[in-house]
Specification:
single chain, 127 residues, alpha+beta, four-stranded antiparallel sheet, 4 strands, 38% helix, globular
């Protein structure tokens, strides 16, 4: 992916990606892709500005990973963890049973807190 180094200090890079608009899904993909790179200790991705701040110990590995990055390729690598924006989007798909919006929120909230939550209760009816 084409990017520009905006700021660099010892062990830290701020880069701007030339990708047009960045969705939350794309920000998640970029973050988990960079976290999987050897030598990266912390990553922050800013979707509104298409920027990423990378804290690292191996500069060459980070630059190589940024040069090789593509959203389509990274999405196929399945690096996104449960509870991310992509997972929330999948869980928010319509169910065969219609639930009030507050119950859907409860399901997403419980799934974010515990991936093994099985019981679903509606805060409106209490059932």
């Amino acid at each position: 992916m084409k990017c520009k180094i905006l700021h660099e200090s010892k062990g830290r890079l701020r880069v701007h990606l030339f990708c047009g608009k960045m969705s939350l899904d794309n920000a998640d993909v970029l973050e988990y892709y960079l976290r999987a790179v050897n030598g990266v200790t912390d990553v922050s991705v800013y979707d509104r500005t298409c920027d990423a701040v990378i804290v690292f110990t191996d500069r060459k590995a980070v630059l190589k990973a940024l040069a090789a990055f593509a959203f389509e390729k990274a999405q196929k690598m399945c690096l996104v963890r449960p509870g991310s924006a992509i997972t929330a989007k999948i869980l928010a798909l319509p169910l065969s049973v219609s639930l009030p919006p507050s119950a859907t929120f409860t399901v997403l909230y419980k799934m974010a807190l515990s991936p093994f939550a099985i019981s679903v209760t509606s805060p409106v009816t209490g059932r």
